Amino acid sequence: MQNHILDLIIAYANGQCSDSEKQELEHWVNESDANKRQFKAYLQLCHNLADSRNNTVNRTGFLYRMRQKWWIPSSIAAGLLLSLWLGYQQYRISGPVLQVAETPVSVPQIQPGDTRAYLQIGDERITMDQNNTLAWSEDLSVLNQNGETIHHSSLEQDKPHTLVVPRGSEFDFTLADGTHVWLNSESSITFPAHFEKNKRAIQVQGEVYLEVSKDKNRPFHVALSQGNVQVLGTRFSVYDRPNEELYAVLVEGSIAYIDEEAKQHLVKPSEKIALNRKSRKISIKKIDTNHYTSWTKKMYVFNDQRLEDIMQTLARWYDFDFYFENEALKNEVFSGRLKRTQNLTNLLKSYEAIADIQFKMEGKKIYIHSKNKK
Q1: Each residue of 204-241: pLDDT tens digit?
Q2: How far is CA 89 from CA 83, 179, 314, 338, 347, in A?
Q3: How far is CA 208 from the centre of its chain?
Q4: What are the pLDDT digits (tens) for 328-337?
Q5: CA 15 to chain centre
Q6: What is the sign of the dihedral through the CA atoms of 194, 195, 196 and 201?
Q7: Which residues, other chains included, contact 230 with Cβ-Cβ below 8 Å and sequence gap of 6+?
Q8: How much is the pLDDT for 137?
Q9: Helices and strands (H and E) in the chain: how many
């Protein structure tokens, strides 16, 4: 992109375009579909980079901050980053809007996930959605949106209670002790109707975030596929999926990871403890917890992640399968943000507008390859 055009976009974002400059910019935008998409992408970045004091940005600061804070050496990764920011917020500006011709999108759309789960109690399976809640008194009850009881577990307290969140869904609820639990797609939690007097124990799989109610007399135990996490009262996330790194991230308080040899590993706030399943090595490092917990706030935050890992994360929520026809693209690394409510089709189309990458969508399948594919 020419510096002159970038200057016009920045001036337009700041509301400083003259009528003649608006006409020039509008002419450039409507010359091609690529220009239209670049205009929207760069304009969105201008707004995200705007100074908090005067809500303006200049080209020097714009280019510097992209290079130093977000942009990375790969052209593909940089393009994907722009796309993520474009998809992160609805495109909006104040003042007169350029007349940009819309290009119809004929690509099938893959929709975001929903709030849904299945509660398995013995042989009984109860379907849960955003209208259902779990209520605790002396017993466990499942209520509908009108507050009516659709299940009561007084005679089934000895049976395991397992809440399963399928692919393309999420769910959150409160346990009997007041602990709040969030489950991401393809995750589950097994819990009792009531905890014992001297301890609280649950078992989880997948990705689960917990805000544990404090109780000095009853430690809280989270059983994983390998080892367990012990806490008194804290906020943390656990990730336990087959063939992937097992880890726990501490937001607040303190936790201890107990490995399979019963060795205790203490974790401090803003630390991640991880188990490499192949080498059996355990590591602890400082991290940005928002990267691991933002999904509970309807947002994805990607920070220097491989494209394959990003697509895997999106696939669980948007419920699709993906295939790399160019293996080299798997290891491209990039950062960015994406609202979980954002439609995926427009996001992928914006990837294609700026990066050397192409997504071919066939129903619930996405094929990924370079644009220069022979």
Answers
A1: 999 999 999 999 889 999 999 999 999 978 999 999 99
A2: 11, 32, 17, 8, 11
A3: 13
A4: 899 887 766 7
A5: 33
A6: positive
A7: 219, 220, 221, 222, 255, 256, 258
A8: 62
A9: 8, 23
